[in-house]
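Extended Data, panel c. Modelled sequence:
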Amino acid sequence: MSPMEPAPGTSDSESPLPRFSLVIPAYNEEIWLPRLLDTLDVARNAYTGGPSAIEVIVADNASTDRTAEIARERGCKVAHVEKRAIAAARNGGAAMARGEYLCFVDADSLLDPDTFNAIDRGLAKPNVIAGATGVRMERMSPGIALAYCMLLPLVWLMRMDTGVIFCRREDFHSVGGYNEGKLFAEDLEFMFALRRLGKSRGQRLLRLRAARAVTSTRKWDKHGEWHYIRILFGGALALILGKDIQERIARPYWYDDPR
């Protein structure tokens, strides 16, 4: 039996509430999802609260491949989300979540073995509202390094990061979750909302860094060494100019790729 599966004869209503709910938005991720789940098994088994304290929800965003089937085979819950938006997938997974803490990670990432212990320690601090683990790139090259260096000052200045994003479930609902009207940068807006909520309570965002996720470089593999520089500037301009420009940039890059 997979470590993610409930014991035979039990149901969600009979089992104790998990400490964590990890939500994985996924569109046609049959190739990438298994390797994430392999690292997830390691991280769950390394968690001091035990693997049963972590439920895993794959938010299947209208996939046409075996993404949902693979998720079920590995003992994950599956939330079917028809609206093609990453924000909608994250919200759909969160709607199924039962955990005290919500975590979100992309399907093409890899988890550090200490992920859940590090998040547990972080959210145990009363002055922390939410945070992120940060990331390491799967590989490095001059183009990837330049894009990484361009983003680092923003990370330092705003004290925000990416990787595994985490918060308390009650705070997720307090800020209204992710903005489904955005096709990209919805995670940035979400973190800003949590930061504003935390500021009103004397809390802050946390960058863990000791348990950074590994993020895929498949976009560089497909679109070229220097493409992300164009995406960074184009995306920033689109956020200023409005939804029509956002659609023109986001759809081909994030949504229309059949994988």
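The radius of gyration is 18 Å. This feature is highlighted in the accompanying rendering.
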